[in-house]
Amino acid sequence: MHFNNVVIQSVAAVEPPIRLSSGEISQRLKPTMDRLGIREGLLEEISGIKSRRLWEEGTRISDAATLAAEKVIEQSGVDRSGIGVLISTSVSRDFLEPSTACVVHANLGLAPDCLNFDVANACLGFLNAMDIVAGMIERGEVDYALIVDGESSRQLIDATCERLLDPAVDE
User: Fold this and answer.
1) Calpha distance 150→130 (Å, rounded)
2) Which of 12, 24, 114, 144 could form a Cys-Cys staple with 72, CB 3.0–4.6 A?
3) Residues catalogued as catalytic
């Protein structure tokens, strides 16, 4: 679809403060890797990932999304009272309900009439949200939209390492 009256005002990202290398994960998994005869460095070699970034323990997905949202609002110069819709496209979630968008909406102090909802479609969620808000802007339903995303792999990494360190893992 082609839009005539829609522009991207600003894009912002906030990098989590903790760096976790594939080597550090391999060290955590060393007992299992040794037991299974897996050579050191294979995780990085297969995944192509040298390191990943993690939020501090206790940081919620909505906190991460809020940090990026605050940054993009400041960069854009848009008054938050003019934001008519907020969509979260986070794959990770704080809760099943309320939606991440609802929590971010409250964190940002957006207007009560600002719509908010999550769009879940893995990596395509952000593009889906762009299409949704562009249509809303094009039709004159809202003047400004905010799309947010916050992610964390900490719980997944920790749970996977815990499972793989179980002595019953033998294949």
Assistant:
1) 16
2) 12
3) 97, 123
Closest CA to 133 of 149, 116, 109, 150: 116
Residue with tokens 């909505």: 62
| Digit-coded pLDDT (tens) for 68-83 | 999 999 999 999 999 9
Measured CA to CA in angstroms, residue 149 lies from 36, 39, 63, 68, 143 at distances of: 38, 36, 10, 8, 21
Query: Does pTM top 0.85 for this prediction?
Result: yes
All structural domains of the chain, each given as residue ranges with its CATH number in brackets, are 18-56+155-164 (no CATH), 61-151 (3.40.47.10)
Q: Is the dihedral of CA 139, 141, 142, 147 positive or negative?
A: negative
Q: If DSSP codes are grouped into helix, strand and coil, which group holds residue 34?
A: helix
How distant, in Å, are the alpha carbons of 17, 127, 129, 159 from that of 81?
Answer: 30, 24, 20, 41
Beta strand 83-88 pairing with 18-21: unpaired
* Strand locations in 9-93 (E): 18-21, 51-54, 83-88
Mean pLDDT of 21-48: 93
